[in-house]
Amino acid sequence: MLTRYETYKLQARVRKRRRAIELSCLTEGGGRTLGREDISLVFNTHNDRKLLPSFLVHYRKLGVTRFICVDDVSTDGTREYLLDQPDVDLWTSPLRYRDARRGREWREALFERHGTDRWYLNVDSDEFLIYQDCEDRPLGELIQALEKKGEKRLAAPMLDMYPIGPLGSAVLSSYEHRMPWEIADHFDGCGYEITYTKRAVSITGGPRKRKFAHVLELIKYPVIFWDKDCSLSVSIHQPLPCERNFLPVSGALLHFKFFSDYKEKIELAVADGQYFNGAEAYRRMLEDLQKTGEFDFSNEHSIRFSGSGQLLQLGFIAPIAFASEARC
């Protein structure tokens, strides 16, 4: 009852501040409609050129047929690369990421434009979705399993990935065909806290909390059935309606922030000021970096990532009741 009342209050607030969002499609011919069988992924990006080849390969293997992207004024070749991909529609906006409620209004506008009452993937360009048997079971089977249980979202926390040793040694080139977990290949195996609020499950922890005392919300819903009742306006971590947010944690988002160019990334994030609270978390990292000269996230609880079966065995993700029919 408390959760439903919270949804009611928040929906009233969302209706009052809803506004039209200007987006322009840069892809030749303009934005394309989605087919009934398309599995579409909506994402935001900013200067992630080095990750995009592996990002597209990963999600194509999972069964994504259409990518719908908003580029936030990238200057590293991201825009040119995406315009050359036949399954990507590239959009831009006069609003910056912060002014579009940290990109949430872009996402909502694209969901509405491409159609409600359908499933979407909803991630950032540095997030790679993992779920049970994702190496063999495509997203279509995952969605069928969710529908069979009457669920309209997949809950998945972000797992910050990092190398063993100084971060400066983790070199990922945009011209190499390597997956990022081959380089930033470890994650924290403990130190997470799960709590419950009126709005959602909450998960905090990981190396940024361990090293910098950053209490960052890790839970997201990267697979979501979008209908007229949905909204991200309050938070990407607590989408409306709130009563859909209390789910088994059946996925994980491998989160790749830390490679050899991390010092430059932190400095640019602070200067740009687009992240939460004026990039406060990045400011604190920069202060620490100026004292230490180098970051090393590894410790005795670091675990090397080896696939979805490992996350299932360790209890990071819950099992999914896939259809039992025989597979080829």
Q: What is the number of strand segments?
A: 13
The percent range for strand residues is 15-25%
> Which stretches of 5+ consecutive residues score pLDDT under 50?
none
Helix-strand pattern, N to C? HEEHEHEHEEHEEEEHEEHHEH
Radius of gyration: 19 Å
| Count of alpha and pi helical runs | 9
How are the strands of the biggest sheet laid out side by side?
1-4-3-2-5-11-7-12-6
- The tally of domains stands at 1
What is the terminal separation in angstroms?
Answer: 46 Å
Class of secondary structure makeup: alpha/beta
Write a structural description:
The protein has one domain. It is globular, with a radius of gyration of 19 Å. It is α/β, with parallel strands linked by helices. The protein contains nine helices and 13 strands. A hairpin with a 4-residue loop joins β9 and β10. The strands form three sheets. It has a nine-stranded mixed sheet with strand order 1-4-3-2-5-11-7-12-6. Strands 8-13 form a two-stranded antiparallel sheet. The model has no long low-confidence stretch (mean pLDDT 91).
Q: What is this structure's SSE topology?
A:
Elements: H1 2-17, E1 24-25, E2 40-45, H2 52-62, E3 66-71, H3 78-83, E4 88-92, H4 104-114, E5 118-124, E6 127-131, H5 139-149, E7 153-160, E8 186-188, E9 193-196, E10 201-204, H6 207-212, E11 219-226, E12 251-255, H7 262-272, H8 276-292, E13 302-304, H9 308-314
Parallel strand pairs: 2-3, 2-5, 3-4, 7-12
Antiparallel strand pairs: 1-4, 5-11, 6-12, 7-11, 8-13, 9-10
Helix pairs in contact: 7-8
